[in-house]
Design brief:
By secondary structure, the protein is an alpha+beta fold. The protein is built from three helices and nine strands, in the order ααβββββββββα. The N terminus is likely disordered.
Length: 152
C-alpha cells in the first residue's frame, strides 16, 4: 500500500513541475512554425515593439529593419542572414529569429525563437490595430510563449 501511495505522490509531483526551461519565454516542448512568406522585403521599415516576452526588446522600443543582400535582414549593424521560410539570423551562435506571424498588409508581426530566448510583437504604429495585436498574442501563445511573461 505504501508503494502505491508513494508512486501516486511521485506522479502528482511530476505533474506539478513546469515543462520546458523556466529561463526562457516559451515552452520548448510546444511545436512552433514560421510563416514561409515572411521576407526581408515585407519586414523592412520602422516598427514599434508593442508586447514583449523577454528583455531583448521592450514595449515602446523602436526598431528599424532593412533588407540586405541575399534576402538578409539588418537591425542596426546586426546582420540576420536569410534562412528561408520566415527565418533569419542564427549566425555566430545567436538564435534564429522566426516570424511566427505577419499580417497580410505587413503591419503587425510576431517574432520568436525556437529556444524561447526572446519574443515580441511589433507593429508599424505605437497605437491602434488591437485586432492584429490580439491575433499576434494568440499566435505567440499557440507557439508556447508564456502569456504571464508578456509586458506591454
Amino acid at each position: 500500500m505504501k508503494t502505491v501511495f508513494a508512486a501516486a505522490m511521485l506522479a502528482f509531483l511530476a505533474a506539478c513541475v513546469p515543462v520546458g526551461n523556466s529561463n526562457t519565454a516559451r515552452d520548448r516542448t510546444v511545436p512552433m512554425a514560421s510563416q514561409v512568406d515572411a521576407t526581408a522585403v515585407r519586414l523592412s521599415g520602422d516598427w514599434v515593439v508593442r508586447t514583449s516576452y523577454s528583455e531583448t526588446a521592450r514595449p515602446g522600443e523602436r526598431l528599424r529593419l532593412r533588407r540586405g543582400q541575399g534576402g538578409a535582414l539588418w537591425l542596426d549593424d546586426i546582420a540576420l542572414p536569410a534562412r528561408g521560410q520566415g527565418r533569419f539570423g542564427g549566425a555566430g551562435g545567436s538564435p534564429e529569429w522566426w516570424v511566427l506571424w505577419l499580417d497580410a498588409d505587413n503591419r503587425t508581426a510576431a517574432i520568436g525563437t525556437p529556444g524561447g530566448e526572446f519574443g515580441w510583437i511589433m507593429d508599424r504604429k505605437a497605437r491602434g490595430g488591437m485586432d492584429r495585436i490580439r491575433a499576434a498574442k494568440e499566435i505567440m501563445q499557440w507557439s508556447g510563449y508564456d502569456m504571464a511573461r508578456a509586458t506591454e
